[in-house]
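2024-03-11 09:14:02 INFO receiving multi-entity request
2024-03-11 09:14:02 INFO entity count = two
2024-03-11 09:14:03 INFO echoing inputs for audit
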Amino acid sequence: MIIAERKPVNEILDMVKDAKKILVLGCRGCVTVCSAGGEREVEILASLIRLGMKKQGKKIQVTEGTLVRQCDREYIDGIDQWKGKYDSIVSMACGVGVNFIANLRPTTIVYPAVNTSFFGGSAEQGVWTEQCAGCGDCVLHLTGGLCPISRCAKSLFNGPCGGSVDGRCEINPETECVWQLIHDRLGRINNQEAMNTIAPIRDWRTAGHGGPRKTLRDDLTL
Amino acid sequence: MSFTPNIQAFCCHYTSQQTIAEGKEGLKRDGMPENVTLNRLVCGGKLQVSTLLKAFEDGADGVYFVGCPPDECHNVKGSQRAAKKVAAVRQALIELSVEPERVEMFHLERGFHPEFVKAAQVMNKRITALGPCPFKGDSK
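2024-03-11 09:21:47 INFO inference complete, emitting structure
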Protein backbone atom coordinates (compact mmCIF):
# COMPACT_ATOMS: atom_id res chain seq x y z
CA MET A 1 0.00 0.00 0.00
CA ILE A 2 0.95 3.66 -0.18
CA ILE A 3 2.28 4.83 3.17
CA ALA A 4 1.69 8.40 4.24
CA GLU A 5 2.10 10.49 7.36
CA ARG A 6 0.16 13.53 8.47
CA LYS A 7 1.94 16.84 8.04
CA PRO A 8 2.66 18.93 11.14
CA VAL A 9 -0.50 20.72 12.26
CA ASN A 10 1.04 24.16 11.91
CA GLU A 11 1.94 23.52 8.28
CA ILE A 12 -1.68 22.63 7.59
CA LEU A 13 -2.96 25.62 9.58
CA ASP A 14 -0.75 27.87 7.49
CA MET A 15 -2.27 26.44 4.29
CA VAL A 16 -5.82 27.18 5.43
CA LYS A 17 -5.10 30.47 7.23
CA ASP A 18 -7.31 32.49 4.88
CA ALA A 19 -10.02 29.87 4.40
CA LYS A 20 -13.49 30.35 5.83
CA LYS A 21 -14.97 26.95 5.04
CA ILE A 22 -12.95 23.81 4.49
CA LEU A 23 -13.69 20.19 3.77
CA VAL A 24 -11.29 17.78 5.46
CA LEU A 25 -11.48 14.85 3.10
CA GLY A 26 -10.27 11.37 3.99
CA CYS A 27 -9.79 8.30 1.83
CA ARG A 28 -10.77 4.74 2.72
CA GLY A 29 -7.89 3.29 0.70
CA CYS A 30 -4.24 2.90 1.69
CA VAL A 31 -4.16 5.92 4.02
CA THR A 32 -6.91 4.38 6.15
CA VAL A 33 -4.89 1.18 6.53
CA CYS A 34 -1.73 3.08 7.50
CA SER A 35 -3.74 5.34 9.85
CA ALA A 36 -2.76 8.56 8.09
CA GLY A 37 -5.92 9.75 6.38
CA GLY A 38 -8.97 7.62 7.11
CA GLU A 39 -12.18 8.56 8.89
CA ARG A 40 -10.55 8.56 12.32
CA GLU A 41 -7.69 10.79 11.20
CA VAL A 42 -10.16 13.16 9.53
CA GLU A 43 -11.94 13.54 12.87
CA ILE A 44 -8.64 14.30 14.63
CA LEU A 45 -7.35 16.76 12.03
CA ALA A 46 -10.68 18.58 11.83
CA SER A 47 -10.59 18.99 15.59
CA LEU A 48 -6.98 20.22 15.54
CA ILE A 49 -7.76 22.74 12.80
CA ARG A 50 -10.77 24.06 14.74
CA LEU A 51 -8.71 24.33 17.93
CA GLY A 52 -5.73 25.90 16.15
CA MET A 53 -7.85 28.50 14.40
CA LYS A 54 -9.76 29.25 17.59
CA LYS A 55 -6.46 29.85 19.37
CA GLN A 56 -5.55 32.33 16.63
CA GLY A 57 -8.89 34.04 17.13
CA LYS A 58 -10.10 33.01 13.67
CA LYS A 59 -13.36 31.44 12.68
CA ILE A 60 -13.50 28.51 10.32
CA GLN A 61 -16.22 26.10 9.33
CA VAL A 62 -14.87 22.58 9.08
CA THR A 63 -16.81 19.83 7.34
CA GLU A 64 -15.60 16.26 7.62
CA GLY A 65 -15.96 13.67 4.89
CA THR A 66 -14.36 10.51 3.59
CA LEU A 67 -14.51 8.99 0.12
CA VAL A 68 -14.18 5.32 -0.79
CA ARG A 69 -11.07 6.35 -2.74
CA GLN A 70 -9.66 9.59 -4.06
CA CYS A 71 -7.84 7.94 -6.95
CA ASP A 72 -10.90 7.11 -9.04
CA ARG A 73 -12.91 9.51 -11.14
CA GLU A 74 -16.29 8.17 -10.04
CA TYR A 75 -15.51 8.53 -6.35
CA ILE A 76 -14.26 12.09 -6.79
CA ASP A 77 -17.80 12.88 -7.97
CA GLY A 78 -18.88 12.15 -4.40
CA ILE A 79 -17.43 15.52 -3.37
CA ASP A 80 -20.65 17.04 -4.75
CA GLN A 81 -22.50 15.99 -1.59
CA TRP A 82 -20.64 18.76 0.29
CA LYS A 83 -21.32 21.43 -2.34
CA GLY A 84 -21.46 24.91 -0.81
CA LYS A 85 -19.89 23.75 2.44
CA TYR A 86 -16.28 24.51 1.56
CA ASP A 87 -14.10 26.99 -0.24
CA SER A 88 -11.10 24.67 -0.16
CA ILE A 89 -10.40 20.99 0.40
CA VAL A 90 -7.78 19.57 2.76
CA SER A 91 -7.16 16.13 1.34
CA MET A 92 -5.88 13.40 3.63
CA ALA A 93 -5.34 11.04 0.70
CA CYS A 94 -1.94 10.34 -0.79
CA GLY A 95 -0.60 12.67 -3.47
CA VAL A 96 -2.57 10.76 -6.07
CA GLY A 97 -5.83 11.84 -4.45
CA VAL A 98 -4.76 15.48 -4.29
CA ASN A 99 -3.80 15.36 -7.98
CA PHE A 100 -7.11 13.74 -8.91
CA ILE A 101 -9.08 16.47 -7.18
CA ALA A 102 -6.93 19.12 -8.88
CA ASN A 103 -7.34 17.39 -12.26
CA LEU A 104 -11.08 16.91 -12.02
CA ARG A 105 -12.05 20.10 -10.16
CA PRO A 106 -10.16 22.80 -12.04
CA THR A 107 -11.36 25.68 -9.86
CA THR A 108 -11.28 23.94 -6.48
CA ILE A 109 -8.44 24.78 -4.11
CA VAL A 110 -6.97 21.59 -2.66
CA TYR A 111 -4.27 21.21 -0.01
CA PRO A 112 -2.32 18.08 0.98
CA ALA A 113 -2.62 17.12 4.64
CA VAL A 114 -0.21 14.19 4.46
CA ASN A 115 3.26 13.54 3.17
CA THR A 116 3.12 10.56 0.83
CA SER A 117 6.13 8.53 1.79
CA PHE A 118 6.56 5.17 0.07
CA PHE A 119 5.14 1.80 -0.99
CA GLY A 120 5.33 -0.40 2.04
CA GLY A 121 3.76 -2.82 4.42
CA SER A 122 2.93 -3.10 8.09
CA ALA A 123 6.00 -4.61 9.78
CA GLU A 124 4.30 -4.55 13.18
CA GLN A 125 1.53 -2.51 14.76
CA GLY A 126 2.32 1.15 14.15
CA VAL A 127 5.42 0.44 12.06
CA TRP A 128 5.53 0.50 8.26
CA THR A 129 8.54 -0.27 6.11
CA GLU A 130 9.38 0.42 2.49
CA GLN A 131 9.32 -2.68 0.31
CA CYS A 132 8.89 -1.53 -3.29
CA ALA A 133 10.01 1.47 -5.33
CA GLY A 134 7.49 1.09 -8.15
CA CYS A 135 10.35 1.12 -10.67
CA GLY A 136 8.28 -0.46 -13.41
CA ASP A 137 10.59 -3.38 -14.23
CA CYS A 138 10.45 -5.88 -11.40
CA VAL A 139 13.55 -7.98 -10.67
CA LEU A 140 12.29 -9.79 -7.60
CA HIS A 141 12.48 -13.17 -9.38
CA LEU A 142 16.28 -12.68 -9.50
CA THR A 143 16.70 -11.56 -5.90
CA GLY A 144 14.70 -14.09 -3.94
CA GLY A 145 11.72 -11.77 -3.68
CA LEU A 146 13.62 -9.03 -1.82
CA CYS A 147 13.85 -5.64 -3.51
CA PRO A 148 17.34 -4.18 -3.96
CA ILE A 149 15.99 -0.91 -5.32
CA SER A 150 13.78 0.13 -2.42
CA ARG A 151 15.60 -1.69 0.37
CA CYS A 152 19.23 -0.96 -0.50
CA ALA A 153 20.26 2.60 0.39
CA LYS A 154 22.22 2.75 -2.87
CA SER A 155 19.68 0.81 -4.95
CA LEU A 156 22.50 -1.49 -6.04
CA PHE A 157 21.84 -4.20 -8.58
CA ASN A 158 25.08 -6.01 -7.93
CA GLY A 159 25.43 -5.90 -4.18
CA PRO A 160 26.41 -5.96 -1.48
CA CYS A 161 28.66 -2.94 -1.41
CA GLY A 162 31.73 -2.72 0.82
CA GLY A 163 29.71 -0.99 3.51
CA SER A 164 27.71 -4.05 4.53
CA VAL A 165 28.84 -4.87 8.07
CA ASP A 166 27.39 -7.74 10.09
CA GLY A 167 24.31 -7.71 7.91
CA ARG A 168 23.73 -3.99 8.50
CA CYS A 169 23.80 -1.04 6.13
CA GLU A 170 26.61 1.51 6.45
CA ILE A 171 24.18 4.35 5.72
CA ASN A 172 22.03 3.44 8.71
CA PRO A 173 23.04 0.59 11.01
CA GLU A 174 19.38 0.13 11.98
CA THR A 175 18.68 -0.99 8.43
CA GLU A 176 19.36 -4.54 7.43
CA CYS A 177 21.59 -4.94 4.39
CA VAL A 178 19.13 -6.26 1.82
CA TRP A 179 21.96 -7.82 -0.16
CA GLN A 180 22.93 -9.86 2.88
CA LEU A 181 19.28 -10.88 3.15
CA ILE A 182 19.18 -11.72 -0.57
CA HIS A 183 22.36 -13.79 -0.23
CA ASP A 184 21.02 -15.70 2.77
CA ARG A 185 17.63 -16.26 1.21
CA LEU A 186 18.97 -17.43 -2.14
CA GLY A 187 21.02 -19.95 -0.17
CA ARG A 188 17.95 -21.18 1.68
CA ILE A 189 16.04 -21.70 -1.57
CA ASN A 190 19.01 -23.43 -3.24
CA ASN A 191 19.63 -20.66 -5.74
CA GLN A 192 22.81 -19.16 -4.37
CA GLU A 193 24.49 -19.25 -7.77
CA ALA A 194 22.14 -16.43 -8.80
CA MET A 195 24.45 -14.16 -6.79
CA ASN A 196 27.13 -14.75 -9.42
CA THR A 197 25.01 -13.32 -12.22
CA ILE A 198 26.08 -9.78 -13.05
CA ALA A 199 23.05 -7.59 -13.62
CA PRO A 200 23.44 -5.49 -16.78
CA ILE A 201 23.14 -1.71 -16.80
CA ARG A 202 19.54 -0.90 -16.17
CA ASP A 203 17.15 1.10 -18.38
CA TRP A 204 15.54 3.40 -15.84
CA ARG A 205 12.93 4.87 -18.17
CA THR A 206 10.30 2.61 -16.61
CA ALA A 207 11.09 4.13 -13.21
CA GLY A 208 9.77 7.55 -14.18
CA HIS A 209 13.04 8.84 -15.53
CA GLY A 210 11.34 9.06 -18.90
CA GLY A 211 8.61 11.33 -17.56
CA PRO A 212 5.21 10.53 -15.98
CA ARG A 213 4.17 6.95 -16.55
CA LYS A 214 0.91 5.60 -17.86
CA THR A 215 -0.54 2.12 -18.03
CA LEU A 216 -3.00 1.35 -20.79
CA ARG A 217 -4.97 -1.88 -20.97
CA ASP A 218 -6.71 -2.36 -24.31
CA ASP A 219 -8.87 -5.11 -22.86
CA LEU A 220 -10.33 -2.70 -20.33
CA THR A 221 -10.61 0.61 -22.14
CA LEU A 222 -13.96 1.55 -23.70
CA MET B 1 -10.54 37.37 39.11
CA SER B 2 -11.29 33.89 40.39
CA PHE B 3 -11.13 31.09 37.90
CA THR B 4 -12.75 27.70 38.23
CA PRO B 5 -11.43 25.41 35.54
CA ASN B 6 -13.56 23.05 33.53
CA ILE B 7 -11.83 19.71 33.95
CA GLN B 8 -12.91 16.60 32.10
CA ALA B 9 -11.75 13.32 33.60
CA PHE B 10 -12.00 10.15 31.57
CA CYS B 11 -11.60 6.87 33.36
CA CYS B 12 -12.05 3.19 32.75
CA HIS B 13 -14.84 1.12 34.25
CA TYR B 14 -12.49 -0.63 36.67
CA THR B 15 -10.59 2.31 38.11
CA SER B 16 -13.77 4.33 38.60
CA GLN B 17 -16.09 1.55 39.82
CA GLN B 18 -15.95 2.38 43.51
CA THR B 19 -15.70 6.11 42.89
CA ILE B 20 -18.98 6.04 41.02
CA ALA B 21 -20.52 4.00 43.85
CA GLU B 22 -19.66 6.79 46.29
CA GLY B 23 -22.19 9.03 44.58
CA LYS B 24 -21.95 12.77 44.14
CA GLU B 25 -22.33 13.62 47.83
CA GLY B 26 -19.89 10.95 48.91
CA LEU B 27 -17.28 12.18 46.48
CA LYS B 28 -17.77 15.73 47.68
CA ARG B 29 -17.12 14.57 51.25
CA ASP B 30 -13.98 12.78 50.02
CA GLY B 31 -12.67 16.05 48.61
CA MET B 32 -13.37 15.51 44.92
CA PRO B 33 -13.44 18.96 43.23
CA GLU B 34 -16.94 19.67 41.91
CA ASN B 35 -15.59 21.16 38.69
CA VAL B 36 -14.15 17.80 37.64
CA THR B 37 -16.58 15.90 35.43
CA LEU B 38 -16.21 12.13 35.25
CA ASN B 39 -16.61 10.46 31.87
CA ARG B 40 -16.56 6.70 32.16
CA LEU B 41 -15.35 4.36 29.44
CA VAL B 42 -15.55 0.58 29.42
CA CYS B 43 -11.77 0.40 29.12
CA GLY B 44 -8.80 2.65 28.38
CA GLY B 45 -8.54 0.79 25.09
CA LYS B 46 -11.71 2.60 23.97
CA LEU B 47 -10.19 6.04 24.44
CA GLN B 48 -9.72 7.97 21.20
CA VAL B 49 -7.51 10.97 20.51
CA SER B 50 -10.58 12.70 19.07
CA THR B 51 -12.48 12.20 22.35
CA LEU B 52 -9.83 14.14 24.26
CA LEU B 53 -9.60 16.84 21.59
CA LYS B 54 -13.39 17.15 21.56
CA ALA B 55 -13.31 17.80 25.30
CA PHE B 56 -11.02 20.78 24.63
CA GLU B 57 -13.32 21.90 21.80
CA ASP B 58 -16.24 21.75 24.21
CA GLY B 59 -14.50 24.11 26.59
CA ALA B 60 -12.33 22.02 28.88
CA ASP B 61 -9.36 23.75 30.45
CA GLY B 62 -7.78 20.44 31.42
CA VAL B 63 -8.35 16.82 30.46
CA TYR B 64 -7.01 13.64 32.00
CA PHE B 65 -7.42 9.91 31.88
CA VAL B 66 -7.29 7.47 34.78
CA GLY B 67 -6.52 3.90 33.83
CA CYS B 68 -5.20 0.76 35.46
CA PRO B 69 -1.47 0.28 36.08
CA PRO B 70 0.16 -0.44 32.68
CA ASP B 71 0.58 -4.17 33.30
CA GLU B 72 -2.63 -4.72 35.26
CA CYS B 73 -5.32 -3.79 32.76
CA HIS B 74 -8.30 -6.14 32.91
CA ASN B 75 -8.24 -6.18 29.11
CA VAL B 76 -4.43 -6.59 28.99
CA LYS B 77 -3.30 -3.45 27.15
CA GLY B 78 -6.13 -0.94 27.50
CA SER B 79 -4.37 1.48 29.80
CA GLN B 80 -1.17 1.28 27.74
CA ARG B 81 -3.19 2.23 24.68
CA ALA B 82 -4.84 5.08 26.59
CA ALA B 83 -1.43 6.40 27.65
CA LYS B 84 -0.39 6.49 23.97
CA LYS B 85 -3.51 8.48 23.08
CA VAL B 86 -2.87 10.93 25.90
CA ALA B 87 0.73 11.30 24.69
CA ALA B 88 -0.52 12.03 21.16
CA VAL B 89 -2.78 14.81 22.46
CA ARG B 90 0.09 16.16 24.56
CA GLN B 91 2.20 16.32 21.39
CA ALA B 92 -0.63 18.08 19.54
CA LEU B 93 -0.87 20.67 22.31
CA ILE B 94 2.89 21.29 22.03
CA GLU B 95 2.50 21.75 18.27
CA LEU B 96 -0.26 24.28 18.87
CA SER B 97 1.82 26.09 21.53
CA VAL B 98 -0.56 25.19 24.34
CA GLU B 99 0.71 23.96 27.73
CA PRO B 100 1.03 20.15 27.43
CA GLU B 101 0.33 19.81 31.17
CA ARG B 102 -3.31 20.46 30.36
CA VAL B 103 -3.61 16.79 29.50
CA GLU B 104 -2.42 14.00 31.76
CA MET B 105 -2.46 10.25 32.23
CA PHE B 106 -2.77 8.62 35.65
CA HIS B 107 -2.26 4.90 36.24
CA LEU B 108 -4.09 3.90 39.44
CA GLU B 109 -5.01 0.66 41.16
CA ARG B 110 -8.58 -0.48 40.69
CA GLY B 111 -11.25 0.35 43.19
CA PHE B 112 -11.81 3.45 45.23
CA HIS B 113 -8.59 4.88 46.46
CA PRO B 114 -7.80 8.30 47.84
CA GLU B 115 -5.43 8.46 44.86
CA PHE B 116 -8.39 8.79 42.50
CA VAL B 117 -9.52 11.93 44.32
CA LYS B 118 -5.91 13.03 44.64
CA ALA B 119 -5.49 12.90 40.84
CA ALA B 120 -8.50 15.20 40.46
CA GLN B 121 -7.08 17.57 43.06
CA VAL B 122 -3.68 17.60 41.36
CA MET B 123 -5.27 18.48 38.03
CA ASN B 124 -7.54 21.07 39.60
CA LYS B 125 -4.61 22.80 41.27
CA ARG B 126 -2.46 22.62 38.14
CA ILE B 127 -5.10 23.91 35.73
CA THR B 128 -6.24 26.64 38.11
CA ALA B 129 -2.64 27.87 38.16
CA LEU B 130 -2.38 27.70 34.36
CA GLY B 131 -5.57 29.70 33.87
CA PRO B 132 -8.16 29.42 31.09
CA CYS B 133 -7.24 27.24 28.13
CA PRO B 134 -6.00 29.25 25.12
CA PHE B 135 -8.50 27.35 22.97
CA LYS B 136 -11.29 29.32 24.57
CA GLY B 137 -12.60 31.84 22.13
CA ASP B 138 -11.82 35.09 23.92
CA SER B 139 -8.14 34.38 24.51
CA LYS B 140 -5.43 34.54 21.89
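2024-03-11 09:21:48 INFO post-check: The longest helix of chain B spans residues 13-30.
2024-03-11 09:21:48 INFO post-check: Chain B is about 45% helix and 15% strand.
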